[in-house]
Amino acid sequence: MLRAMIEPLITVLTPTYNRGHLLSNLYHSLLEQTAANFEWMIVDDGSIDNTSDVVDSFQAECHFPITYLHKANGGKHTALNFGIARINTPLTIIVDSDDILLQNATREIEALYYKYCNDERIATWSFLKRKPDGKPIVGLEKEEFVMNYISYRIKGNRPGDMAEVFKTDVLKAYPFPEYSGERFLSEDVVWIEIGKKYDCVFINKSIYQCEYLEGGLTANDKPLKFGSPKGSMMRGKQLMSKECGITANIKGAIIYDCYKKSLRGGTLSICLCGRSCSAA
User: Fold this and answer.
1) Which residues does 160 contact at the CB level (< 8 Å), separation at least 6?
2) Is residue 214 part of a domain?
3) Residue 124's pLDDT band (boundaries 50, 70, 90)?
4) Domain closes at, from 160, 177, 209
5) How many domains does the chain have?
6) Whether residue 234 has pLDDT greater than 60
7) Is 95 helix (H, G, I), strand (E, B) or coil?
8) 16 CB contacts (<8 Å, ≥6 apart)?
9) Which bin fits 95, alpha (ψ -120 to 50), beta or left (φ > 0)?
């Protein structure tokens, strides 16, 4: 009972859609956390499976707070906006419904937060994600350093998923753009915007394990992007920001042109670079 009385520092935010059968893996990874400094917020983006019943079973037995919210289907980014607006903890980490947190994740987050919490330049802590075989998706040159997201990830051309922890107030100030009828938006549209003002602590340590399942957003990336041309154009526009540098600017212009053609119903086979637009 004492653990349940601890004021949460972190919200684990999970947008989900028809993933009731997968949530138990994440739930059990949260049960095993070595620091009970968190709450779990699940935003159900219009599921028609048994997600509600599954979450009810978790709430009946767990020792940490679980908030379950249900909304009409609108895509992951709209579910994130819906949840972020209702979060009260200082920190937020987004964890997908088919992924898990490693056992010391919340303890590691807390330690790094208090190390840098008085630095107003910092809004993000980027840890590593690993695959089920234990291999990190990306690797860092140093064990820990402060740098700007745009400088390191965009201008430095270092792609690959990382486990980002955000100051919640900053996420609230930078909501994901929403376009009527579109259900997909690349999250770096917001990460770039945050990077124009704030820095990030990069930590060469895995706290998150992911698995890219068939039917997930990563596996269906290109069709989802072409089905959401306005959001995809917005990503191109962000990459054209002066802060991102000439290489990203060129890529952004290509992306913007491709999806602009898609929006207008024009040809998608060839774009400004002379290659297939699907390469963007």
Assistant:
1) 137, 138
2) no
3) very high
4) 209
5) 2
6) yes
7) coil
8) 23, 42, 43, 44, 45, 47, 51, 79, 97
9) beta
Greater confidence (67 vs 262) lies with 67
Torsion of CA 140, 143, 147, 148, to 10 degrees: 40
Residue position matching structure tokens 């491709």: 258
Cβ–Cβ < 8 Å for 96, 17: no
| Domain of 80, in residue numbers | 3-209
CA nearest neighbour of 55 among 24, 10, 80: 24
Q: State percent of the chain over pLDDT 90.
A: 85
User: Mean per-residue pLDDT for 23-41?
Assistant: 98
Q: What is the pTM of this model?
A: 0.90
Please name the residue that has the structure tokens 């945050």: 194
Q: Report in angstroms the alpha-carbon separations of 168 from 2, 97, 148, 264, 267.
A: 25, 20, 18, 37, 41
Q: Which residue has the tokens 């962000």?
A: 238
* Segment 100-124 mean pLDDT: 97
- Give the pLDDT of residue 262: 81
Co-location of 265 and 231 in the same domain: yes
Q: Choose one of 157, 181, 209: the last residue of a domain.
A: 209
Contact 97, 69 (CB under 8 A): no
For 236, the enclosing helix (H) or strand (E) is: helix 229-239
Q: Which two tokens stand for residue 3?
A: 């653990």
Cβ proximity of 258 and 280 under 8 Å: yes
